[in-house]
């Protein structure tokens, strides 16, 4: 028959529309189903209405109290589920006993469908769920278009900020392929730019989670809730990830690096860490701030020392090396490998605001910083450095960074800075810090944080700094006697090196053989400590008065 294809096409279109809009039509479908069920029950089991009533009460209670069977966790949604179940069950009970066409029952059913449909139709999470279902349905075609053919969406969950889907990739595809196509995915899904994130499934290289953020949870500043750590062993909360989980990072026996361009929020992250460390009773804090103390001075009452000039910084770091040496010595004697920070024997954390400035203006301090970076972790002498310019020079060609196991990367100006702050290859792996679009947004690479997830640091305002300082300044611990003695007996720390020793060093270098003198020979000649010799050699080398002729051998 000529009309048959048209009829089939029309029926198929209606079927597709009914399927596509099944969520919107759910109240009407439920009303129709109830009418049919009432008719059947009334004709076959009219005396079963007490059982229907009992089932209604039980189901409404379970839906209201437990959210079952829909897995509802919000109280509003549970109340809605319980009310709907009670109304539907009550109507079915009456229809079973009296027949669905009796008296006002049809009108009550129609009025209930409309009344209960009113909260249903505009409900945000329901509409989001529908949109997600449609995307899952359309994904095979979308994936073909954007070059991810063969990938599948296995499941999807709607959350506070949007939705996230678990994806299975075609054999041979990798997460890097998905990351590279993020802009194409955003265009295919019709989202705002920057709404899609891709995270590797740690358990399977062929799977990943795709997060679509309808609302940016980091759009506004998130105020610092105050310190949560009380000991260096407690993780420090830096801010929140995009799924509203907290960024908790341990700084125990770890050096930290905070990098980012100007105004990216480095000082703010430092403030969050300092605010927490100030509340820890097993940490002594020292600070270096070569911007004249602009950033760290507000914390001064909680800092046992604050260096604001290159000379002070050099001395401070040399003293830290003396502490390190003393602790290493003691650990050797006592046969212990690590220094456990306690209020009586606290860790020493040295906070350096703008490390590149230190490298430029106090080159003699760099060997000390590098020595602390290399040896400090086990002995609880830790560095926390912020830098705006993660140049190869400032980062010691990567040697310093490699010792820093907590790396926070805020917005950077150039893509290559990502690899300088985090590590080689991280940019290609999706740590796109150049796309961070507001101060305080960052990526963190640390123990337990090995995937590129965007976070936003808490914002610490000046009042909070003042309050925290006022609260903890009087409760700061002092250094343990061993470490304090190391500083007190360390000549460089108290006064400038004796002029005589300086002259002896210069003479020794001038008269050195062509293959130079070793450090032990220079120690012998001057009677000074190794760290003093090292500092002076660096300073003389910068001034062109000494040079290293071979590894570890010096002359004028
Ligand atoms: N987590 C945050 N949330 C919201 N705003 C922030 C956040 N962190 C910083 N800001 C804003 O960004 C501005 C710059 O922050 P901050 O001084 O910490 O940047 P910086 O990287 O240290 O800058 P500079 O390189 O100039 O020292 C601040 O005035 C503050 O208002």
Report on this model:
The structure is a single chain. Helix content is 46%, strand content 17%. By secondary structure, it is an alpha/beta fold. The protein folds into four domains: 13-121; 125-213, Threonyl-tRNA Synthetase, Chain A, domain 2; 222-485, P-loop containing nucleotide triphosphate hydrolases (Rossmann fold, 3-Layer(aba) Sandwich); 496-555, Winged helix-like DNA-binding domain superfamily/Winged helix DNA-binding domain (Arc Repressor Mutant, subunit A). The strands form three sheets. Strands 5, 6, 7, 8, 9, 10, 11, 12, 13, 14 and 15 form an eleven-stranded mixed sheet that branches. A four-stranded antiparallel sheet has the order 1-2-4-3. A hairpin with a 4-residue loop joins strand 6 and strand 7. The termini are far apart. Residues 233-419 form the FtsK domain. This is FtsK domain-containing protein.
């Amino acid at each position: 028959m000529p009309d048959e294809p048209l009829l089939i096409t029309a029926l198929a279109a209606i079927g597709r529309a009914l399927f596509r809009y099944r969520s919107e039509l759910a109240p009407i479908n439920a009303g129709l189903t109830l009418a049919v069920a009432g008719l059947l029950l009334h004709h076959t089991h009219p005396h079963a209405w007490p059982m229907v009533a009992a089932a209604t009460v039980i189901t409404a209670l379970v839906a209201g109290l437990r959210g079952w069977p829909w897995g509802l966790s919000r109280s509003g949604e549970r109340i809605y589920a319980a009310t709907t179940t009670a109304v539907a069950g009550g109507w079915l009970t009456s229809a079973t006993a009296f027949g669905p066409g009796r008296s006002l029952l049809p009108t009550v059913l129609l009025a209930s469908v409309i009344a209960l449909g009113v909260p249903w139709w505009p409900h945000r999470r329901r509409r989001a769920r529908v949109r997600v279902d449609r995307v899952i349905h359309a994904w095979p075609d979308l994936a073909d278009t954007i070059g991810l053919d063969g990938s599948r969406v296995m499941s999807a969950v709607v959350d506070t900020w949007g939705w996230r889907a678990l994806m299975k990739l075609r054999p041979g595809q990798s997460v890097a392929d998905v990351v590279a196509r993020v802009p194409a995915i955003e265009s295919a899904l019709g989202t705002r730019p920057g709404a899609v994130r891709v995270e590797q499934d740690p358990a399977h290289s062929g799977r990943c989670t795709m997060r679509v953020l309808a609302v940016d949870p980091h759009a506004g500043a998130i105020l610092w809730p105050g310190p949560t750590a009380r000991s260096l062993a407690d993780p420090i909360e830096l801010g929140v990830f995009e799924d509203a989980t907290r960024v908790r990072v341990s700084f125990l026996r770890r050096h930290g690096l905070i990098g980012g361009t100007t105004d990216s929020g480095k000082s703010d992250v430092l403030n969050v860490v300092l605010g927490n460390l100030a509340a820890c009773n097993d940490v002594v804090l020292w600070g270096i701030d070569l911007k004249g103390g602009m950033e760290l001075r507000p914390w001064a009452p909680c800092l046992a020392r604050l260096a604001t000039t290159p000379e002070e910084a050099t001395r401070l770091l040399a003293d830290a090396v003396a502490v390190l040496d003393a602790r290493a010595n003691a650990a050797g004697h006592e046969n212990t490998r690590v220094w456990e920070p306690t209020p009586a024997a606290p860790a020493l954390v040295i906070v350096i605001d703008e490390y590149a400035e230190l490298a430029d203006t106090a080159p003699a301090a760099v060997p000390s910083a590098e020595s602390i970076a290399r040896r400090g972790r086990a002995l609880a002498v830790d560095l926390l450095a912020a830098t705006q310019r993660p140049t190869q020079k400032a980062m010691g060609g990567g040697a310093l960074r490699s010792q820093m196991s907590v790396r926070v990367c805020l917005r950077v100006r150039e893509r290559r800075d990502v690899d300088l702050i985090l590590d080689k290859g991280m940019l290609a792996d999706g740590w796109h810090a150049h796309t961070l679009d507001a101060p305080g947004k960052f990526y963190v690479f640390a123990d337990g944080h090995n995937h590129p997830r965007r976070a936003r640091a808490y914002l610490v305002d000046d009042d909070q700094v003042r309050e925290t300082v006022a609260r903890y300044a009087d409760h700061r611990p002092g250094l343990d006697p061993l470490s304090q003695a190391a500083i007190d007996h360390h000549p460089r720390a108290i006064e400038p090196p004796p002029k005589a020793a300086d002259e002896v060093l210069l003479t020794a270098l001038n008269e050195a053989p062509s293959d130079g003198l070793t450090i032990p020979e220079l120690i012998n000649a001057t009677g000074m400590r190794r760290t003093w010799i090292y500092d002076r050699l660096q300073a003389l080398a910068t001034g062109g008065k000494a040079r290293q002729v071979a590894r570890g051998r010096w002359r004028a």
